[in-house]
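Let us work through a complete example step by step.
Step 1: write down the sequence.
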Amino acid sequence: MFQTVLIANRGEIAVRIIRTLRRLGIRSVAVYSDADAGAPHVRAADTAVRIGPARASDSYLNIDTVIDAAVRSGADAVHPGYGFLSENAAFAEACAAHGLTYIGPDAHATEIMGDKIRAKQQVESDGVQGIPGRAVAGMTDEQLEAAAADVGYPVLVKPSAGGGGKGMVAVHQAADLPDALLAARRVATAAFGDDTLFIERLVTSPRHIEVQILADAHGTVIHLGERECSLQRRHQKVIEEAPSALLDTATRERIGQAACDVARSVNYTGAGTVEFLVSANAPDEFFFMEMNTRLQVEHPVTELITGIDLVEQQVRIAAGEPLAIAQADVQFSGHAIEARLYAEDEQFLPQAGRVEHVEFPDHVRVDSGIKDGTVVGSDYDPMLAKIIAHADTRDEALQKLARALESTIVFGVTTNAAFLHRLVTDAEVRAGTMDTTTIDVRLSDCVRAHADDRAWTAAALAVHQERWDAAGRGPWQEPSGWRLGAPALPVLTRLRLGDEERTITVSGRPAAATVDGRQAALTGTGPARHLIAEGIDTPVTIGNDGARLWVHDGQSTLAFEVLSRDGERAARSEIENGEPELRSPMPGTVVAVPVENGQTVQAGDTVMVIEAMKMEHHITAPTPGTVTLAASLNQAVAKDAIVATIAPADTAADSDAPHPGARHEGDNA
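Step 2: predict the structure and record it as tokens.
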């Protein structure tokens, strides 16, 4: 068994790997960029090594730097986690060249399965059916257009390298294919350094089913059942569960054996996942999509229903041990469901910021990479944590996960917790009849922030408490509205939540106040408070990041903006101000500028493409006019930074210009 293992990763997966290494008595080495110097995975490891600046290409993706850290720390093995270098054959070869055991498959299997075209050809030659399409290396755009015509629309454009849905584009008509190819090549080049594309038929009512396999170096290959990963947004998984509600016992056995056959076709060793597409209209038929030669984000659901620690099995297999588990030993218990908690706003745009306060439920498994004070930047994937519920039945697991999401609190960074809660309580999802299009087609509209009176009251009292604490305790300093020899003046608090604004009158001490004429009290210190008002007696959690006031009312987290100057705030990107300002919706990098300075554009034309957290965002013109660029190619821009302005054309007043917005291409990792 290994003495020291370096984890070539960060965040929640690094913390999770360290947990197993500690149980096995193996010394752990973390690596970190400058952005992660104080991150939880650094604190959790036995030792840690700096590997460079924040940009991933200069740190976590720098093979030489990671190898040097492993050698200097005395590691005898390297665990790649997922993402970053986890499916990089060159990294596996570099580990071997420096006497380090790579905890994963050999470079040969990684290289074949990391190339979707070669993988498709490999498994189909061994009798495993793939999705109809044309997968030939080096196809030009003209050849891809001809292939799409032969396959028949709708089609799916897919990069040959990488994974996570990045660069995949669904195309429903030939006229849209050229732009789709351009976007797919750009994303593939940026994410994987390889713009090779191929074409597949777009399967109707698709269900994404994947099978977890384990294979040792002694010829044993077993599967640990399937996972349902159909709840996706733009090909990126959001909710995963095990087992699938779609498959019957016979199909479950056939798909499991097909996954084992795929692993045997490349002499695979370690833990891996074989992904299949199944049409809900024909659940007994399945098509091979790809094999992920690494641990999956959603591996905890398999661990919970089987009781098998997949990281431990990876380590033991890499150390040369034979599998101690036979196929007959694999037993399934209950149902498990995982939700990915992302730093995203209501429009699913990645968010950055400092985590002021975080609380996770203790009745479910939580794999987290954040803590109070963690800075969430734009250099890495926006996933913050995974919340996983396990119960005897699927319905019980969904209910348990819904309760867990209600009690998840993150202040300082906006998350998708409310959207996740909507998913796991949706009738179609509860019935198990969803497919990979469910979110994009039916549930893609954002969950708008909404607060009842108790949340508004708590927010107003919290602001009043801050004023009270800042003013001191003397009778002449208290912000009570009291005046000598005259009626008390009202103390106004103006708040905004989403599109709603309220001006609330507060007077008296916060613990015995009057709010809009009604008695109310907010007691306690720190995040945990207690709100008492007419008909209200409930605990609340409150935080403040300087710009927003966060209130968790027991079901969801709400971010109130405290408006200055009695609620007045400068309007952003308002057409009536003369020249509409186009702003970046998140911190990122300009990756394309399809227009020139001074060019005339029409409403809806793309002016700039910004990449952040592995997702592309198209900034479009809100009205016809002349463009003045304020950012250039490869420039880093901050959230809300002005990237261009539009001088409206004379016909702008008569146009039906859409509201300023961002169209999204590409996917998260």
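Step 3: interpret the result. Residues 564-578, 651-669 have pLDDT under 50 and may be disordered.
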